Amino acid sequence: VAIPVKVVTIGTDASITDISESVTCRSTDEDVVKVSDRCDYVFVNGKEMKGKVKMMVNFTYGYLSAQLELCVWIPRLPLQIEVSDTELSQIKGWRVPTATTGQR
């Protein structure tokens, strides 16, 4: 799962400049969330072992810095799912391919 990130500056004249390619970035805990080398998205790849409520990613541009705060949830394992309808039914309009054995 990846979430795109764009870093901008807002000038005194209210101009907005995309500086995404000029920033450096770092996750404060890569066991929770990672950030791409180009700082253009934050992501999880399934190897994370914990979540965190106030997860921070730091962005730096020259002497300026900013933080992106995230909430990362992770399920407790083993995951148990309960459903009221225990019967599997075909999805209307969904064709299921069948394997052919060459016999007719």
Automatic annotation (TrEMBL):
Name used for this protein in its record: T132C
Transmembrane protein family 132 fourth domain residues: 1-77
The species this protein was found in: Poeciliopsis prolifica (blackstripe livebearer)
Lineage: Eukaryota, Metazoa, Chordata, Craniata, Vertebrata
